[in-house]
TrEMBL record:
Keywords: NAD, Nucleotide-binding, Oxidoreductase. GO terms for biological process: L-glutamate catabolic process. It comes from Thermohalobacter berrensis. The active site is at 107 (proton donor). This is Glutamate dehydrogenase.
Length: 417
């Protein structure tokens, strides 16, 4: 049966309520967190290449700033709505809280199909959005970053526009910039590296040795490819990876760097010569590994395929890859699901490092960045694992509980309740 689709903001509010109830939090905590503190809706006029004017709708939601400035990406997509942006900003509050970053959640978006725009139109739209949200953002106030269909170039235009308005250079107001323009080394690898770190820690808890692990990774983009590469570097065998084009399988272990090279040259996994077998992309659910890492899109593991999975560990590189129904089945089967808000927090963690480096104007080596990321994420994993065992809940609920407890304490100290 197909799962019920809920408005994303209603889902975020439900998850918040469950965790607040489990924590026994004061009613005021739910009341303070159930709605963003501020949502700005803007109209952005853009002069198109043909001389006409088009007006786009954009949003910036700042969910909670009890712990520090708000932080979260900006997406350019036709499906962007006010409620989606509000939900994503709520989830960012939890994600930052999980790794203990000194931020609350924010998110922004423009309702637009970028495929219909020229590069010049995208630049004018990006600069227009930066001007429109300039009154409420800043390196000590709200720090946006890239998300779906936005990138380092777009962040650079926005930094330039914001700096012109403020009449000073403010590189730390946006993260996800190219390394040559104040970005951090290690950011490209960060999310996948974090996923592999979480696989390693989860395996330790399950009493499994990395050398004995067979890993399958769904999705071979930024997150999936680096998750597979580092899992292999930590000693595991990556037996299958998939993308939209195919699932490639090698029981003896794929050479992940060779797969990355093939994907770079051909734009897809299909046709990789080092595979024993090439199947339909959904065969990834049937390869029976010890670890499954969904790193593609949301709603990948559903009640329809959850019973095909034999993995003992699921590490969610993607956002929202497991439906609530499938999550319950996995919990009942004793599968350890490392939740998205922890497993893919490497990205926002290194964005935080980028911001710190911008504020200091002093830049770290790649090794220093990865070392700092490892410490933050492994500590967070261990703390959440303890909460999970103490309260006999799944790891997702434990992660929400830890995060909400931190925010609730800050709100209490500020005298908000
Ligand atoms: N990039 C980051 O730093 C970051 C951080 C946190 C969370 N995430 C989340 O991770 C997920 C992936 O992000 P990304 O940046 O790697 O995106 P990406 O566009 O680089 O890669 C997505 C990959 O998924 C594949 N894919 C799509 N549909 C598929 C299917 N049905 N079966 C198998 N493969 C499929 C694509 O072919 C591609 O290889 C998203 O949910 C994103 O929100 C990304």
């Amino acid at each position: 049966m197909a799962e019920k689709t809920l408005n994303p903001f209603e889902i975020a509010q439900q998850q918040l309520k469950t965790a607040c109830d489990k924590l026994g939090a004061d009613d005021a905590v739910y009341e303070l967190l159930k709605e963003p503190k501020r949502v700005l809706e803007v109209s952005i006029p853009v002069k198109m290449d043909d001389g006409s004017i088009k007006v786009f709708k954009g949003y910036r939601s700042q969910h909670n700033d009890a712990i520090g400035p708000t932080k979260g990406g900006i997406r350019f997509h036709p499906d962007v709505t006010r409620d989606e942006v509000k939900a994503l900003s709520t989830w960012m509050t939890f994600k930052c809280g999980v790794v203990g970053l000194p931020y609350g959640g924010g998110k922004g978006g423009i309702t637009v199909d970028v495929n219909e725009l020229s590069e010049g139109e995208i630049e004018r739209l990006s600069r227009g959005f930066a001007r429109a949200i300039a009154p409420i953002i800043g390196d000590k106030q709200d720090i946006p970053a890239p998300d779906v269909n936005t990138n380092g170039q777009i962040m650079s235009w926005m930094v330039d526009e914001f700096s012109k308005i403020k009449q000073q250079n403010v590189p730390g107001v946006f993260t996800g910039k190219p390394v040559s323009f104040g970005g951090s080394l290690g950011r490209t690898e960060a999310t996948g590296y974090g996923v592999a770190l979480m696989i390693r820690e989860a395996a330790k808890k399950k009493g499994l040795k990395m050398e004995d692990l067979r890993v399958a990774v769904q999705g071979f983009g930024n997150v999936g490819s680096y998750a597979a590469m580092y899992a292999e570097e930590f000693g595991a065998k990556v037996v299958a990876v998939s993308d939209s084009s195919a699932c490639i399988i090698n029981e003896k272990g794929l050479d992940v760097k060779a797969v990355m090279k093939h994907r770079e040259e051909n734009g897809k996994l299909s046709g990789f010569e080092g595979a024993e077998r090439e199947e339909h992309r959904d065969e990834i659910f049937k390869v029976e590994p010890e670890v499954f890492a969904p790193c593609a899109l949301e709603n990948a593991i559903t009640s329809e395929n959850v019973n095909d999975l034999t993995a003992k560990i699921i590490c969610e590189g993607a956002n929202g890859p497991t439906t609530p129904e499938a999550d319950k089945v996995l919990y009942d089967k004793g599968v350890l699901v490392v939740p998205d808000i922890l497993a893919n927090a490497g990205g926002v963690t290194v964005s935080y490092f980028e911001w710190v480096q911008n504020l200091m104007n002093y830049y770290w080596s790649f090794e220093e960045v990865q070392e700092k990321q490892e410490k933050l994420m492994v500590d967070a994993f261990n703390k959440i694992f303890e909460i999970m065992e103490e309260h006999k809940v799944d790891m997702r609920t434990a992660a929400y509980m830890m995060s909400i407890k931190r925010i609730a304490e800050a709100m209490k100290l500020r005298g908000w309740y």
